[in-house]
Amino acid sequence: QVQPTFLGVKSEGPKLVPFFKATCVYFVLWLPTSSPSWFSALIKCLPIFCLWVFLLAHGINFLVSHRSASRILAGLIFSAVGDAFLIWQEQGYFIHGLLMFAITHILYSSAFGMKPLDLKAGLLMGLVSSSCYAFLYSYLSGPFTYLVAVYIALIGFMGWRAVAGVQLCNDLWTWTKLSACVGAMLFMVSDLTIALNKFCFPVPYSRFIIMATYYAAQMLIALSAVETRDEEDFRKRS
């Protein structure tokens, strides 16, 4: 089982070249966040646009026949809208971005599915999420008190579904399920850094940490969507 997915992941590499180039452009330009513009929004969203193209390159029929892939694509679309909103977060659009990413996590959770259930992983993720909210709680006020709680619950649930899919103990894991798991964890690190930096205290190199983990997370989650096609292609070649 590992062999077909490993070959599949290897074959996806060239399709991700535009994403890596767009990510380099973002970090090289490093446009100031103090002066938001449509150009800075474009540069920030460009790597996510490249992940749209990465999934669309596998064909519309693939996306239509594999609901998990189409849901991940939808999640990437909402992510790009969220990224644009966060460019203007100081102008009052932070909550709009939060909403877009909340929808993204719902879509990703749906893509990862509810089987296997793995209640132990769910309990662990629940404890981690509760601990994060307990730490943030005293720094929150107004609508953020409950909005952040809902958001943490959603991203924690998404993380649970990604971790549950790996099944390392049962030797049923695949490289792409592992990439979904690592991607979900990186997404949580990125969002926790945002929360700490916005509500609690300045985090050194916060923007670099947030964006590096975010882009890596989105790439790994997008990569997890192509697992089914890779395994089918391997069986046909065999």
UniProtKB/TrEMBL annotation:
It is a multi-pass membrane protein. One of its GO terms (cellular component) is endoplasmic reticulum membrane. Keywords: Membrane, Transmembrane, Transmembrane helix. InterPro entries: TMEM86B-like. The chain crosses the membrane at residues 38-57, 69-88, 94-114, 121-140, 146-163, 175-196, 208-226. It holds the Pfam family YhhN. It comes from the Eukaryota. Its EC number is 3.3.2.2. Belongs to the TMEM86 family. PANTHER family: GH04784P, LYSOPLASMALOGENASE-LIKE PROTEIN TMEM86A. This is lysoplasmalogenase. It comes from Ficedula albicollis (Collared flycatcher). The gene is TMEM86A.
